Amino acid sequence: MIQLDFQNINKDKKFILIGIFVWIIAAFIINPCGNFSLNDDWAYALSVEKWVETGSFVHGDWPAMTLYGHSFFGLLVSKIFGFSLTYLRLLVVFLGAIGLWGTYQLISQTSQNKNIAFFSILVLGFSPIYLSLSFTFMTDISFYVFLVWSSVFYAKTFRSQSIKMLIIATALAVFAVLIRQLGVLPPLAFGIAVIASKISSTKIKVFGIFSFGVTLATLLFFNWWLEVSQGLPEYYGNASVIWKQITDKQTLQQIYERASSLSMHWGLFLLPVVIISFMQAIKRIKIKPAIIITLVTFGISSSIFFVWDFFPTGNIFNGNYIGPRLLKDVYYGAEIFPKLSPSNLIILRSIASAGAVMLIFTVLANVFSVFKKVKTSQIKQVQEIKLFVLLLFLGYTFLISINAYYFDRYYIQALPFVVILVLPYGFFSTKKWVLAVASVFFIAQSVFSVAGTHDYLAWNRAKNMAISHLTDSLNVSPKNIDAGFEFNSYHKLVERNYNENQGNSWWFVNNDNYIVSFRPWASYEKVKAFGYYSSIRQENDSIWISKRRKDRKFVSLKCDIDSIDFETKTMFTSNKNIPIELPAIIDSSFSRSGKFSIKTTPQAPYALTYKTKDASNHMKYNISVWRYPAEKGASICVSIEDNNYFKADGENVIEKDLAGWEKIQFQGVLPSDAKGKEVVFFVCNFSDSTTVWLDDFEMKLEDY
Q: For the chain, what percent of residues have pLDDT higher than 90?
């Protein structure tokens, strides 16, 4: 029998064992099991599934990253255990632990305080974004692992001047770039730092440049191969996309705002470490530099006021819950769960802002030490590593700040580098009250992260049970189901529906005769509920299956502009009970059918007004009208209770004729506050000088 003598194990191994033990406990509490997709990982799971079935890597049109390395890991797991989203998720749970181990190794390269290094990885690992993403098949964690471990071996190269360490770092960077394009950053940062180094050998400098060249060549070759074999996907990130974003006029403002948002997220999620490091910085820094750094800090921090109202940005961390809730009822604005109260939101933003200010101050104080003249070679090596980390941090932050898409989950790759820039080098002691405050914030964040991630998987597990009941027990085709973004995207039975035609959700919905939602939906009847327990709210809740009612409200009418009652000032429609108000100008100069059409001018812009007080929550509208001349500015508008009107969404030109007329169609859904109020539909000529004629009007309204 093997016995483990815990007392004689060195501190590094003790921390690794404790970390693994804590991670396993968290995994049991959260429960990663369930054959369902989360967030965008349906797209990555599809790539693995097709690779297993066909023997060839298929990228897909959704992912923006290289993806190959991530899918390769999924392929290995699927070959051993069989394809299952549960196994793919367990793979990332394992990688999440490996990532924290690598983070500990990286921090240890620049800090002699192993206790604070271990505390830092606990804070990072149990932050809401890192923990929750470790329980999905998203690429964030797998990329994090190779980004961090390649950085570990680049840091070891500075210390050892070893080609062997550099070769390992390069191999890890190559694999990182096959997961995401930003894997080129560690070798680029190393190449710049090693060239600037005064103690690195010429051989290391040459091989450092070669390391970047190999990684970049790998990326370029993969891009070429992907374009030739499958074609670059619509959202794929490459150099041309980056250049376009850099040269955009709004880029500087975007960087300014996003950098502020980033600092608030980092300040909040790393607050326990930031508090300890901030107190050390105050203790060590001299008065004159402290004044300068304070002024610079408040100058930078003033930008927080511009993003205050937008924090948190969402996707993973949403203030009082974790993970996107892309089911139909939430997407269309139904208030399912209580939001943070205004006072609690102010508290959250204030804590994040305070953390951001302390973080910026501490980073600035520590960055000065990177460029100080020192005598010992050991501290010079630490300076080189910190310069490497600083370059890597700046490069990554810049690229995610200019990215067209901006989600909070992109922040986590920068967190270990932020920690290194925050922590001072050398031994230091922490006062008990500082450690107590830091521990309180750490415990609070950890409890929220574990409970929130548990709830995220719990309601998705209940959703999966509901879907299985529909497809297996009731034999309902996925074509007739809207079960949220992940399910419908995974099946992709139709093209994307970004205009939300027919009122269907944009996520590949063919028909929504059945929906899966947090609450029963208007115009639907309840079928069955599937329960789950919410740890954060400390209560039982349910996911619902609902079926569209046959007795839902439905209005359909057509008006050819030729049946007019001048006495009542109305136009007759195909629905005898619903006339339409007569517009100001009936004209016979142009008509598409019959004798008359409606003439709209800048002086008389309104026409085809229909009023109803019988609207439901999220009532769906489908309206079309012919206009002449084609491509002129007449649009359908909606007004609710005399509020400011808005243009209807989803304009489509669906038909044109040889006489110069075109048929425009508008499809959408009324806001949730329309129920019980007077809703007015009308056509408006928005042109300042053009006359537009209208003919052959059609309208359908139905409960959504």
A: 46
